[in-house]
Amino acid sequence: MMRALLAMVLGLFVCSAIAAEEPQVAIDITMDNKLESMKKASVGAVLYPHKLHAVWYECSECHPKVFTEKIGANDINMNKIISEEFCGSSGCHNSANAFPLYLCENCHEMPKDVVKR
Ligand code: HEC
Ligand code: HEC
After folding, report:
1. How far apart are CA 57 and CA 25, in angstroms?
2. In this predicted structure, which of 4-13, 38-47, 58-67, 98-107 has the lowest mean pLDDT?
3. Ligand 1 centroid vs 67 CA: distance in angstroms?
4. How many CB atoms lie within 10 A of CB 68?
5. Is the separation of the CB atoms in 46 and 64 below 8 Å?
6. Is 81 in the pocket of ligand 1 (CB under 6 A)?
7. pLDDT for 53-68, tens place per residue?
8. Neighbours of 59 (CB within 10 A)
9. Looking at ligand 2, which residue's alpha carbon is closest to its atom 5?
10. pLDDT band for position 10 (50/70/90)?
11. 86 lines ligand 1 (CB under 6 A)
12. Which long-range contacts (CB under 8 A, 24 or more apart) does 55-61 make?
């Protein structure tokens, strides 16, 4: 009994040690700083698949040059994205590497009451 308990406790230690080696990255990040202007354009918040992007690219390709690594710390708007900043940086959503910017619904939640365009 004592042995089983000890093995369990040791097991927990080993698991948490392995987990600690992985960089901690948020899975999905809701970006809604600009919700007011998004509503006017009939789009919702951006649900950003962070973990997936971190699988495709090195952390250093985005942080800190393209995005400050703090939720809500980046002052992003569509003009900047079209001007090749943030998500529109060269090789990203302004290029053939990723889906184009006119696919609003690929990044923005589309409110149910918005008629499909
Ligand atoms: C393709 C670009 C991209 C890549 C690659 C990327 N990130 Fe991020 N990261 C972002 C964006 C965008 C945000 C959200 C910033 C905001 O909310 O303004 C973010 C937010 C964060 C945050 C703050 C949220 C949190 O989880 O606490 C951390 C920390 C972070 N990233 C770490 C990492 C690490 C570590 C890696 C590599 C394993 C990585 N990022 C890879 C774009 C990226
Ligand atoms: C590649 C992802 C992506 C695509 C595609 C995209 N957006 Fe955005 N959009 C963002 C991000 C990221 C923000 C900033 C979110 C924040 O920080 O609040 C944003 C912000 C906005 C804003 C508020 C700021 C501003 O520029 O006024 C509006 C409005 C907006 N988007 C409309 C649209 C419309 C309409 C489309 C389609 C024609 C579109 N977006 C396509 C990622 C995208």
Report:
1. 13
2. 4-13
3. 7
4. 13
5. no
6. no
7. 999 999 999 999 999 9
8. 12
9. 101
10. low
11. no
12. 59/23
